[in-house]
Specification:
Layout lengths: L15 H6 L8 H10 L3 E7 L8 E5 L22 E3 L3 E7 L6 E9 L2 E3 L3 E4 L10 E5 L26 E4 L2 E5 L4 E7 L5 E3 L4 E3 L3 E7 L5 H4 L7 E6 L4 H7 L3 E10 L2 E9 L3 H12 L5 E5 L4 E7 L3 E9 L9 E2 L1 E3 L4 E4 L9 E10 L4 E7 L14 E2 L29 E5 L1 H5 L22 H11 L4 E4 L3 E3 L16 H7 L2 H4 L13 H9 L8 H10 L10 E7 L11 H17 L2 E6 L3 E2 L10 H4 L21 E2 L5 H17 L4 E4 L7 H14 L4 E4 L27 E3 L1 H8 L8 H5 L19 H15 L7 E3 L5 E3 L4 E2 L2 E2 L9 E3 L9 H8 L6 H16 L4 E5 L18 H5 L17 H4 L3 H11 L7 H19 L9 H7 E4 L9 E7 L11 E9 L5 E3 L8 E2 L1 H6 L9 E3 L2 E4 L3 E8 L1
Parallel strand pairs: 1-8, 27-28, 27-42, 28-31, 31-34, 34-35, 35-36, 36-41, 41-42
Antiparallel strand pairs: 1-4, 2-5, 3-4, 5-6, 5-7, 9-10, 10-15, 11-14, 11-16, 12-13, 14-15, 16-17, 18-19, 19-23, 20-21, 20-24, 22-23, 24-25, 24-26, 29-30, 32-33, 37-38, 39-40, 43-44, 44-45, 45-50, 46-49, 47-50, 48-49
Length: 1065
């Protein structure tokens, strides 16, 4: 084991009592301190050896009925004791004042970043090898106390490890397969410990005997456990015993035969989530939770599902948020819920729950105050829940009750969805009232530039406004006085973050009169690989600003407070509704809400944990062996496969559909949800709105990958459900490569939309065969990415969509086109403009780059699919090459609705995700010699192309067939097979007999995507009866199709174009 650095003198922190006890040595040498601790009867010392040079641990210490030797007050978990010092061999240590006549003290070493803790441990004074000494040695990852000095963990037969058992029903528990004999032990108060010397578990209150079981049906429900676990039967547990056990600390203890004697062989915690479903879900799912107002009695009833709690109280608060007399809640044994009736609390009152329960993170019984997971309104920063009547007149804007959706949702294939973020929309817009910038109410200002732009898109065919997270999220401080943004003075930014004052480059601006935006603008002119100061300053500002994408759920059913002009209380509800009202009645779009039920921001005992403080280890999916919360989504994964998590999700969606009139829901990481849960939630939402639409990210990864735990709501599994999933197939084919490419691989992986093979850059690795395959994927995407759509691929095979390869998976997977969301840009990853600049040859002029951008968007706009666009893609939006701008602030995320700038080259992107790409980015800027300098005229050109394509799409129902059978029969591709011309797609849509006539104005439509640098002659079918679409003709020289000619029976199209021809009736 490496020698640890000594603790600095400043870390020698002793309490007054300990300091007096050690007055003769002060901060003496390590050997002197060691000797003193061994002989002083009033001091206990705990060493913690983590083998880290700079350990950052605190100690949680407490007394209980079985162990009460600590002479101080029980510590708070979030404010433990700092180490008293650090020994070079044994690690950091704590000296604690103890009662010399007591038997033990309870303690847990832990840290916060990254999270780590041991289990609850006991220092037993009688176990010390030196009489009178009270010294214990703990090693990271051992969960044991040793009493002999050692620099490495002594060999031990048994220690508490993980949570490697699963209690799935009252009569059945799953244990590791090599188990031969086992029992369950429980303590109501926690604090059980392993006495290896005497071969027993101390501190137990209940023991249940187990026996091997032949049951096997469980393997179908828990396939991920079937290989490593075996079923044991619980022999002597009646319902009362089990109901008591789940409210305490539970261990599975296994035994082995050693020389004819029964000996401890392993000890592990028990996962009980499935047992809770088995015991309570049937009744619990029938009930209504949260604060429910009884209008007849003008009071409220409260119900909280907390089956493992030992006591629950309702804590009312007055209008100044001072706690009032608690109200004891009553446990409903059938459902595991707690109820408080006739409370006298009414609309507008604040409250919290106080839950007393055993928490496995601390290993002890905790009393925690927590907000309501069913909160409908909150105080600032979500510290208190608020009772609200959502039908109250004060929460109902004029026109709300009569409000209906402007767009029919019977055929989702007709949707053109426009994704926006509340701050991106207006935070830096001078035409928006200052008090409304970056807020819900910005959408209500009909004459502002952002709203005027939305109206112009709506008139030309945009149907839905997709709002990135607007539920209550955890990553923006809602207290206005505690945050500062770049449109404020730099002086204020420095006040919020004193590190700026001390910075050699930033500090000089702290006393000046410039805004943060102006300072960033000045630094952007000199930003370079050698001095990437813009991203450094932006990162510093982000610590206290108002910006985050919001994929950090805190409370699922309450509007986010930082987007309201007043975060405290019900104003957020009113302003949210006013936003919805304006979007539907003035802008004339339906509303999509981004929902994130797959994870929460925090779990366990963390400050912003809610669910895990109410029913620990139930609402979150745990590793089946270690018991740690899974984090494959990014954060604390939830477990929608559990019945009460499904109910929470479904009840929440119904609130948004019913009480906020949301028309469609975009599900973040939907593949982490069970298909059954998504379908059940959809059924419930349809009871509110029969036309409600669900779509989401059907990615297949993480601990649930390949249906390992349940049948997922993933791309292939949702065939035939009518639920849409984002298609990475056409996205990657058009953009090139993968979103995860780095450094030169980004540039080397060109796509259909930026010149793969046909216009190679200096690093291009895409050959002709690969380029033709990319075109095949684009063709299939434009035909709705259907599983059963047939065409001739680039190898001259007649293939179905499911037989076309995409990274060793079927490219086609949908039954109908409304199950596919095609896009080439959304909030994730680089914008389309930035992506193309990574890949486009240096010699491409600006006009070519703009046409590439438009042509790429044309593959989505003219396809048989739900159309999805990111706000600003029609304005050549750039994030200055930023890959992941979730917390990059207004500087990188701004959209300029004055249309003077596209935000390109305003500084190198953030180091955390893009530092390895900086050299490539700088080379691109230097090698393109001003070809990326976009003017207002260029932005106007791209906006015109975008609107032209929208108007053409909405001019004919032939672009939105939707039904997979209709698409398969009516759509044909030309220029296919091995002899196809790379970079050229020719698609025809037929409305002639024998097909049912859908478009009385047209017989056929032909779409040509020319993703090449040269003019193309379209002679793959007879074009003599076709003409360019009338909207192309009306725009004349301003059309993306300008230069198109008809010569006899062929058409000629310009380079980098998306052109539509029509054969009119």
């Amino acid at each position: 084991m490496p020698t640890l650095f000594p603790m600095p003198a400043s870390r020698c922190k002793l309490s007054i009592s300990i300091a007096l006890a050690l007055a003769s040595i002060g901060c003496a040498t390590q050997d002197e301190v060691q000797d003193t601790a061994l002989i002083n009867p009033d001091i206990a010392r705990i060493y913690f050896n983590s083998a880290e040079a700079q350990p950052d641990y605190v100690l949680h210490v407490w007394n209980d009925q079985t162990c009460d030797g600590y002479m101080g007050d029980n510590t708070d978990w979030n404010a433990g004791l700092e180490p008293s010092g650090q020994h070079p061999d044994y690690g950091v240590y704590w000296d604690l004042q103890v009662d010399p006549n007591a038997e033990c003290i309870n303690f847990t070493p832990h840290r916060f970043n990254p999270d780590y803790q041991t289990s609850a441990l006991k220092l037993r004074f009688s176990d010390n090898v030196n009489e009178g000494a009270k010294v214990g040695y703990v090693f990271k990852d051992t969960n044991r106390v040793f009493y002999t000095p050692s620099t490495t963990p002594p060999e031990t037969a048994v220690s508490l490890k993980g949570a490697n058992s699963h209690w799935i029903s009252p009569s059945l528990i799953l244990v590791p397969k090599n188990t031969t004999e086992a029992e369950l032990v429980m303590s109501t108060t926690g604090g059980m410990s392993i006495n290896e010397r005497d071969n027993l578990i101390e501190g137990t209150a209940t023991t249940l005997t187990l026996a091997p079981s032949s049951a096997s049906a469980w393997q179908q429900d828990y396939p991920h456990l079937s290989d490593e676990f075996a079923a044991f039967e619980i022999k002597d547990g009646d319902s009362n015993i089990i109901a008591n056990m789940i409210r305490g600390q539970i261990w599975l203890v296994s035994y082995a035969d050693e020389e004819g004697a029964r000996a401890l062989s392993s000890v592990t915690r028990v996962q009980t989530a499935e047992l809770l479903d088995s015991l309570y879900a049937d009744e619990a799912t029938k009930l209504e939770y949260g604060a429910v107002i009884d209008h007849e009695s003008d009071t409220s009833t409260f119900r909280l599902w907390a089956p493992t709690a030992q006591q629950v109280k309702l804590i009312p608060f007055d209008e100044d948020l001072r706690a009032k007399t608690p109200i004891l809640m009553r446990r409903d044994n059938a459902s595991g819920s707690w109820l408080a009736e006739y409370t006298g609390l009414a609309h507008g009152d604040f409250y919290r729950y106080e839950v007393t329960l055993y928490h496995p993170e601390t290993g002890r019984v905790e009393t925690l105050q927590v907000t309501d997971p069913y909160s409908l309104s909150l105080s600032t920063n979500s510290q208190h829940s608020q009772i609200v009547d959502l039908n109250s007149a004060e929460l109902t804007p004029a026109g709300w009750n009569e409000l209906s959706s402007p767009i029919s949702q019977q055929n989702p294939a007709s949707f053109i969805i426009y994704e926006t973020h509340v701050r991106d929309f207006s935070a830096l817009d001078d035409s928006t009232t200052e008090h409304y910038r970056g807020k819900y109410l910005a959408f209500t200002e009909g004459d502002s530039l952002p709203v005027t732009h939305l109206k112009s898109l709506s008139r030309r065919g945009a149907t839905h406004l997709h709002l990135m997270p607007v539920f209550d999220f955890a990553t923006v401080n809602e207290e206005l006085t505690e945050r500062a943004d770049i449109n404020e003075s730099f002086r204020r930014l420095c006040q919020m973050n004193p590190n700026l004052i001390r910075h050699p480059k930033f500090g000089v601006y702290c006393d000046g009169g410039l805004s943060g935006e102006k300072v960033l603008e000045q630094f952007s002119r000199e930003d370079s690989l050698e001095a990437p100061v813009v991203q450094e300053l932006s990162r510093a500002i982000s610590q206290n600003d108002s910006y985050n994408w919001g994929y950090d759920p805190y409370h699922y059913s309450t509007p986010e407070g930082s987007y309201a002009t007043e975060a405290n209380g019900m104003q957020r509800i009113v302003e949210f509704r006013k936003m919805i009202l304006a979007i539907k009645s003035d802008i004339k779009m339906n509303v999509v809400m981004d929902v994130v039920y797959n994870h929460t921001n925090e779990s366990g005992m963390a400050d912003k944990s809610v669910l895990d403080k109410i029913v620990p280890n139930y609402y979150h999916r745990l590793d089946p062996v270690t018991g740690e919360v899974e984090e494959s989504t990014c954060c604390a994964n939830t477990a929608p496969e559990r019945q009460m998590m499904e109910k929470l999700i479904t009840d929440s969606v119904v609130v948004w559909a019913k009480d906020y009139k949301v028309d469609a829901f975009r599900w973040d990481l939907m593949g982490h949800h069970p298909k059954s849960q998504i379908l059940a939630t959809l059924d419930a939402a349809k009871e509110v709105n029969p036309e409600v639409y669900f779509y989401g990210e059907g990615w297949d990864f993480g601990e649930v990958k390949s249906d390992s735990q349940f049948k997922q709501a993933s791309q292939l599994n949702l065939y035939g459900t009518g639920i849409g999933t984002f298609s990475d197939r056409m996205r990657d084919a058009v953009r090139g490569g993968s979103p995860f490419d780095k450094e030169e691989q980004i540039r080397a992986s060109q796509g259909f939309g930026n010149g793969a093979f046909v216009y190679p850059n200096e690093l291009n690795k895409v050959d002709e065969v690969q380029a033709k395959h990319l075109a095949d994927i684009v063709r299939l995407g434009m035909a709705g990415n259907l599983r059963d759509f047939s065409f001739t691929d680039s190898q001259d095979r007649t293939v179905k969509g499911s037989e076309l390869d995409y990274n060793n998976e079927p490219a086609g997977y949908a039954k109908d086109a409304w199950e596919i969301i095609n896009y080439v840009e959304k909030h994730d990853n680089q914008t389309l403009w930035d992506n193309h600049q990574y890949k486009t040859p240096f010699d491409a002029d600006l006009n070519t780059r703009i046409r590439m951008h438009a042509t790429s968007l044309g593959t989505v706009m003219y396809g048989q699919n739900v159309v999805f666009h990111h706000m600003g893609s029609e304005l050549l939006r750039s994030k200055s090459m930023e890959r992941n701008s979730y917390d990059s602030g207004d500087w990188y995320n701004r959209v300029d609705f004055t249309k003077q700038s596209n935000n390109s080259n305003i500084g190198l992107p953030s180091a955390d995700e893009d530092e390895q790409n900086w050299a490539l980015i700088e080379n691109i800027y230097k090698s393109t010699e001003g070809k990326l300098d976009v003017s207002p005229r260029d932005i106007a050109t791209m906006e015109r192309y975008f609107k032209e394509m929208m108007e053409i799409r909405t001019s004919s129902p032939l672009f939105t067939l939707g039904d997979g059978r209709e698409i398969s029969q009516r759509i044909k591709f030309h220029n296919t097979g091995s002899k196809q011309l790379p970079g050229l797609i020719v698609m025809s849509i037929d409305d002639r007999a024998p097909f049912k006539n859908l478009d009385p104005q047209r017989k056929r439509i032909v779409v040509v995507i020319n993703a090449r640098n040269d003019i193309q002659t379209i002679d793959q079918l007879n074009m003599s009866s076709f003409k360019p679409h009338r909207f192309h003709s009306q725009l004349g020289p301003f059309s993306l199709a300008n230069g198109t000619e008809m010569v006899d029976d062929v058409a000629i199209v310009p380079p980098w174009s998306a052109v539509v021809f029509e054969e009119r009736d």
